Amino acid sequence: MVRLVLSAIRERLGETALLGLLAALVVAVGVAGPLYADAAARNVVAATADTATPSEVSLTVTVEMTSRNGYAAALAELRGSIATVPAGPGVREIRGGYRRGAVTPREPGAPLELLLAARDDACAHLVLTGACPAGPGEAALAATTASRLGLGVGDSFGFQVQPSTPATPLRVTGVYAVDGESAALTDPYWAGRAELTPVPLRAENPIFTVPESLQALGADTFQATLDYVADLTAMSPADVDTLARTLREGDVPGRGIAVTGGLSRLLPQIVADRDTVAVPVVIGAVLLLGVAWWVLLLGVGHAAAARRTQTVLGALRGAPARHRAALTAGPGVLTVLVALPVGLVLGRLLAQLLAWAAMDAAGPVELSVTALAIGVGLTLGVLASVVLAYVRAQRGGVLDALRQVPARRGAAGGIAVVAVVVVAVAAAVQLRNGDEVLGLAGYVLPAAAPVLMMVAAGLVAARAVRPLAGLLGRAGLRAGRAGTTLAALYAARRPGMDRLVALVVIVMALLGHAAYGWQGLQADEAERARLGLGAAEVVRVRAPSRAALMQLVRQADPAGTWAMAVARQESSSGTTVAVDTSRLARVAYWPATAEVTAGELARALRPPANPAVRVTGTTLLLDLTVPAALQIDLPLTAVLDGPHGEPVTATGAVVPGRARHTLRLSVPACASGDGCRLAWLSFRFDPGGLVLHGIAQDGPAAVIADQPAMTDPARWRTTVGAEGRVSLTPGPEGLAVDYEPADPRFPDPEVRVQVADVPLPMPAVLAGQARLAHDRTVLRGELLTPLRRPVDVVAAVPALPGAGTQGLLVDLEYADRVGDSTDNIADLQVWLSPDAPADAVDRLRDTGLVPVSTQTAAQRAEHGLAVGQGPGSRFRLGAALLAVLLVMVAVALVVAVDAPRRGAELAALRTQGLPQRAVGRATRSGYVLIVAAAAALGGLLGAYAAEESAASPGLPVTVLAVAALLLSAAAFVVGTRLSKVTGLDLEEGR
To answer: Lowest CB count within 10 Å: 27, 321, 705, 823, which one?
Structure first.
C-alpha cells in the first residue's frame, strides 16, 4: 500500500509538491496570526515603557500619620490599611515620609519652606558630594538649596516645623547635584512626586535624611508615603493583565488617604491598545487564511479531477477499493502530514519578518502552545478538505469520469453567498445607524463590516461572470471576432472561472481597503500627534520660574519666529495650556477645523489690563502705619519677578509702636535690566488693620505707587480664594489690610496684598462647543496651580494645540500672575516651529534653560502607530500583499490545470482552420482581460469601502496598480503558453 502511494506521488511529483506547498502555506498563515499578535502585545508594552513618564508608571499613596509610635510602625500601619497591595514581577515598593518646615539662610533673607524627607534607598539615586546621611541629625541638601542657604558639607542649620516650636539642629553630610540635564526628572524611582523629585534651578529642593531625624522633629504627625513603581520592561503581557486587574479590583482608599499616579490608568490603556491591535490582526489573518485555503481547494479540486479518470479505470479493471482510495487520497493525506512541521517553521518565520517590518521593538518570535494548537487544527482541517475534495470528484457516473465532465455544484454555494450578503448588509446598516455595540463586538464589528461588504461584493460579482461572458461571446460571434468569442464563451462555460474572478475581486478590494486604511491611519495619527504635542517639536525644560521661562525663550529667539514659551498642566478635568500669545500664530500648530485663526484668539486672550508695578531701584520703600493692636514684630515679605523672570524676595519686620514709618527692603537685583515686577506683599500673620500709604524706591529714587494709586480698588486684590478672609479697604490715608480666619484654630500661613495687573476672570479658549463662547460662560479652571480660578470663555474650538479635545488655552503671562504662587507644578515647555534652526536646543541651553527631553510630532506619531492601530493595520496590509501572491499562484494553477484540455480544444480548432492570431487572442488576451477587469473592480471596491480617501493617494494607487500588473502578467505568461498550438494532438487531449 505504501509503495502504491509513493508511486502515485512519483507519477505526479509536481502536483504533489504544489499541494504540499499550499498546505504548508495554510498552516503558516494560521500560525503567523497569533504569533504576530503576541509580538504586537509585547511591542505595545515596550513602546509604552519607552515613553511613559515616572508618574504614569507609579501609584502613590500619601496620608498624614501620627508619629507617636515611630516611623516604621506608621508605615506598617499604612501598608496594612491598603486592602489590595500591587505586587508582581517588575513592581517595586518604596516607603518614605516627609515633613514641611522652614530653614533660615545664613545671610539675611526670607526663610525657605522646605521638605525634610526620608525615602528608601534615596542616596542611590542622587549624585552626592560628601556622604549619605546615615544617622540621626544628618542631612543631604541640593546644591541649589545649599547655595541659597549659604551652607556646605559639615555646616549645621536648624529645621523649624512651626514658628512656635524650636528648630531641630541638622548637619550637612552631603550635597547632591541638580545642575545640567538631571536624570532625576525621568527616574521612575521618584514616582513622579514633584515635591520629592530633585529639580534643576529650584532652591526649594527636598532635604534628605534618615527616619530617625523625622522622629526627632517632635511633630505630632508627618506625611507618610508608599509608592509602587512598575518596570514595564520586566513585565509580560500576562503580568500587565494581572496587575491591571489587581488595581481595578482594589478598594476605594479610606478617608484622608490620597492615591495618585497614572499606573491605574496606564495599564488599562495598554490592555485597550493590545485589543485594538488584536482585532485587525485577527481579521487580516482570517482573510489571508481564507485566501490560502481557497487556493488550496482550487489546487486540490483540480488534482482530484485529474485523478478521477485513473480511479474509474482502476475500478473497471477490478482494483480493490482500498487500493483505489490509497491511489486517490493517499498522496494528498501524506503530503499534508509532511507539510505540518514545514508550515510551523514558515509561520514563525513569516510572523518574525512581519514583526521586524512593522514594529520598532519587535523581539524574537517563539512558537506558543496556542500557535501549535492552531497548526494542528488547521492540518486536520486541510486533511478533511483534501478527502472531501477527492470524494466529491469521484461522484457521478463512469461515462462522466471518462469524458472528464466536471462535478456539479450543489446549493450550498448559493446559500453561502446569500448568507454573506445578508450579514454584510446587516452589519453596515447597524454601523450607519450609529447603534451602540457592546463587548467584543464593539471592537470587531467596525473592522469586520467593510470586509464583509467587500467579500459579498466579490461573490456577487463572480455570479455575474457567466452571464456577462455569454453576452460578450455572442456579441463577438455576431461581429466576427473569433478570438474574443472563444475567450468569452470559454469563461462562460468554465466552472472555476467565476471562483477565480471572485478571488481576484475580493483580494484586490481587501488590498485597496488596507492600503487606503494605512494611508489614512498615518494621516490621522500625524494630525493627532501635531495636535496633542502642539507644535512640530516640543522641548521640556526647567527654568527658575514661569516668568523666567518666557524671558529666556524671548532671549533665545528675539524675533519670535520659531520658539514659544509654554506651561502645560494636566488634571482630571482636562489640560491647561498657557502660551506666549505673541508667538502663538507663528509657532503653534493650529487645527484646520477651528473657525477662528490663532492670531484672532491671541488678541482675545490678552485684553488690556492694569500696568504692572515695576521696581527699578536697589531698595523698595513701603510707607505704612502700624496699628496699635500689633504687639509683636510682623514679618513682611515683598515677592517680585526679577529682570530675567527669576523670583526675588525681600523680608523686613514691621515693628509695633512705630506708628507711620517707612520700611526699607533691599532688592539690588531690581536695579538691572527692566527692573522687577511687584507680585504681592505677604504678611506672616494678621496685619490687624495695617495701612499702606504708598510705595517708592531708592537707587534711583522714584515714586512707584502714590496715595491715590494705593486707594484705587482696581489696582489691588486679595489672593483668589481668600476673598472672604482678607479684606482690602481703601481709605483717605491709604489701603487698610485686615484678616479674619474662617476657623481661628487654623489661620492661614500668610496674608497677601496682590497687585491687580491681570484681568479677572481670566480670558480662555475652551476646547468644546462653540455655544459656550456665545454664552460667555464663566468656568473655573486650574491655571497652573491646584486652586481653580474663574475663567471667561472668549472662544471655543473643537480642539486645541497641546490640549486636544478637552482643555483650556490661556495667556502664559496672565496665567502666571493669576497663579499667586512662585511654586511651579506645571510642565514647562518650549514649542518650536517647523522652520526652527538646527541648533535651537543649544540656543535655549545657552540662555540658562535646562532641556530635559525633546519630542517631535513625527516621533509622537510613530509612537501612536506603535501602540495603537498601527501594528494591526500594517499586518492587514502585509496580509493583503501576501494574498496577492497567492492569487498569482491561483491564476497560474487554474490556467495550468486547464492547459491539457484547453490545448486539445484549440488544437482541434486549429486543425479546422482557426487562425493562429485568433488562438493567441483567445488565450493571452482572454485570461488577461478577465483578471485585469476583476482586479480593477476589486481596487475600486476597496477605495470606495475606505472610510476616508487619502489626501494624497499615492501609496494606495501605486500598490493597487502594481498588484493588478502582477496578476495580469501572471495571466499573460500562462496564457502565452497555451497560444502555441499547431494542430490536433489526440494523445495530449486525452
So the answer is: 321
**Burial grade of 306 (CB within 10 A; 0-12, 13-18, 19 or more):** middle
The Cα–Cα gap between 552 and 566 comes to 12
What residue has cell string 463577438?
476
d(CA 936, CA 944): 12
Based on its alpha-carbon atoms, the radius of gyration of the chain, rounded to whole angstroms, reads: 39
HSE-CB at 236 with a 13 A cutoff on CA atoms is: 3
Instruction: Tell me how far the alpha carbon of residue 483 is from its chain's centroid.
Output: 58
- What is the C-alpha separation between 939 and 479, in angstroms, rounded? 31
* Cα–Cα nearest to 222, from 72, 20, 418, 14: 72
Among 33-47, 129-143, 318-332, 605-619, the range scoring the smallest mean pLDDT is 318-332
The pTM (predicted TM-score) of the whole model is 0.76
166: DSSP letter: P
State CA 539 to chain mean position distance.
Answer: 18
Q: Positive or negative CA dihedral for 943, 944, 950, 951?
A: positive
pLDDT computed for residue 109 by the predictor: 65
Share of the chain above pLDDT 90, in %: 21
Average pLDDT over residues 501-529: 87
Reference 797, options 988, 589, 510; nearest CA is 589
What distance in Å separates the CA atoms of residue 168 and residue 165, rounded to the nearest whole number? 9
* Neighbouring-strand partners of residue 230: 91
**Is the C-alpha dihedral spanning 502, 503, 504, 507 positive or negative?**
positive
Distances (CA, A) of 546 to 395, 637, 807, 849: 85, 20, 20, 11
Tell me the pLDDT band of 985, cut-offs 50, 70 and 90: very low
Antiparallel, parallel or unpaired: β 751-755 and 716-717: antiparallel
Q: Quote the CA–CA distance of 366 and 371 in Å, as a whole number.
A: 10
On whether the CB atoms of residues 309 and 328 are closer than 8 A, the answer is no
> What kind and span of H or E run contains 703?
strand 702-705
- Residue by residue, DSSP assigns 957-973 as HHHHHHHHHHHHHHHHH
The 3-class SS string of 376-396 reads: HHHHHHHHHHHHHHHHHHCCC
- The answer to whether 161 touches 84, Cβ cutoff 8 Å, is no
pLDDT at 272: 85
SS3 content of the chain, % helix, strand, coil (to 5): 50, 20, 30
CB atoms within 10 A of CB 870: 29
Residues 647 and 668: their CA atoms lie apart, in Å, by: 13
Q: How distant, in Å, are the alpha carbons of 93, 245, 630 from that of 249? A: 19, 6, 56
Mapping DSSP to helix (H, G, I), strand (E, B) and coil, where does residue 156 land? strand
Which residues lie below 8 Å from residue 284, measured CB to CB, with a gap of 6+? 33, 514, 872, 875, 876, 878, 879, 880
Contacts of 812 (CB under 8 A, 6+ apart): 546, 549, 550, 565, 566, 567, 578, 579, 580, 581
User: How much is the average pLDDT of 966-974?
Assistant: 82
Query: CA nearest 124: which of 220, 221, 199, 189?
Result: 189
Query: According to the model, what pLDDT value does residue 990 have?
Result: 35
Residues 6+ apart with CB under 8 A from 161: 99, 100, 101, 168, 217, 218, 219
Q: How far apart are CA 375 and CA 370, in angstroms?
A: 9
pLDDT at position 701 is 93
**pLDDT class for 170, splitting at 50, 70, 90?**
very high
Q: Which residues are within 8 A (CB) of 543 and not within 5 positions of it... i.e. 6 or more apart?
A: 201, 549, 552, 645, 828, 848, 849, 850
Q: What is the dihedral of CA 870, 874, 876, 882, to 10 degrees?
A: -170
pLDDT 10s digits, 300-320: 776 666 666 566 555 555 555
| Structure-model confidence comparison of residues 159 and 327, the more confident one | 159
CA–CA gap between residue 851 and residue 830 (Å, rounded): 9
